[in-house]
## 1
Amino acid sequence: NAGVTQTPKFRVLKTGQSMTLLCAQDMNHEYMYWYRQDPGMGLRLIHYSVGEGTTAKGEVPDGYNVSRLKKQNFLLGLESAAPSQTSVYFCASRSGETQYFGPGTRLLVL
Amino acid sequence: KQEVTQIPAALSVPEGENLVLNCSFTDSAIYNLQWFRQDPGKGLTSLLLIQSSQREQTSGRLNASLDKSSGRSTLYIAASQPGDSATYLCAVTIQGAQKLVFGQGTRLTINP
């Protein structure tokens, strides 16, 4: 099992550009999550999904959209990137009470 | 709104010492509490999970306690080693929710 993988690992965007972050898991988990981590602020939940075809807002959803068309994939989209979205993005999937995290995507918006 | 706080933000101790990391939360209506480890540039790894009905959990040199009534948890690390250097985060699962609320983390450095 590869576990939870994230693509890309690092990306630089200019303000206003769009991009999609991909999260994939091969553990057949129903629940998947997108977090952002900023210095001194821990992880904050952006959006999450409780199953294929479902999505829900987390704590900081503004400026992001998500889709869960396939159970194994959870996509995070930035339609018009802003410098405030410079962060490290983590995806996780959940089995029972345990969340399994991906290695993260480091995004820099100039 | 549930808030989770970890103090201190950073801690540096000599190798071999026993140490305690602290976590506090504002709403005692939690489903469980977890401690995670994060190495630089990496994702999070779950260390210990304590159910709301439990008082503590142990794994090797790690012991986590939970006092729901006072909104506190501690992570005790015995006989610390340089390999324990990492950021440690605690997180609570809110009752009735499917999501975690994280603290800011404590960056731990063990000096040889």
## 2
Amino acid sequence: EVQLVESGGGLVQPGGSLRLSCAASGFTFSSYDMHWVRQATGKGLEWVSAIGTAGDTYYPGSVKGRFTISRENAKNSLYLQMNSLRAGDTAVYYCARGAHGAIGDWGQGTLVTVSS
Amino acid sequence: QSALTQPASVSGSPGQSITISCTGTSSDVGGYNYVSWYQQHPGKAPKLMIYEVSNRPSGVPDRFSGSKSGNTASLTISGLQAEDEADYYCSSYTSSSTWVFGGGTKLTVL
């Protein structure tokens, strides 16, 4: 069974940093692209970043230069380093496994709140 | 990259069929067959329902089907059931090597 468990969320002040982690199990982690997707309360889904099996990374303009996605295959772990956080970054952040050009399996999410 | 356009809400009675549209551009929906659909119940993580325009992951009922014409993709749910009431999101791969979601559609089963 595929399991994705996020951690590292919490309250952070504007301009601050936070590092999210995602522990993966139940599949060969190194063989899959991985994603981060976020959802503000009452709002829609927003794709945040992706990392390929070769370590290639992708971001939308809204987070490029502020967020960094990385993976550690030996630890079956995915990370999201978030810097220069803004109130608009407040959301539940989901870790997800890519497959067939889609976002297949999702974790339960971790809440990030950016507020003073 | 602008969000894909979906209707804010749709509704239908049990047993009926509904269709949710998802409109993009030639740089996303129209340019690639990497269109996917997600179902999200309140307080839950999204669930993949359709990938590559019209393929269903194992376990997804065949009442759910997907299609695409030009820059618009569609999700059709036939034989509506009460448990289908949820938010639905479309997504597409884009020419910028990114992914984009639609704004979401709230499905109400009357």
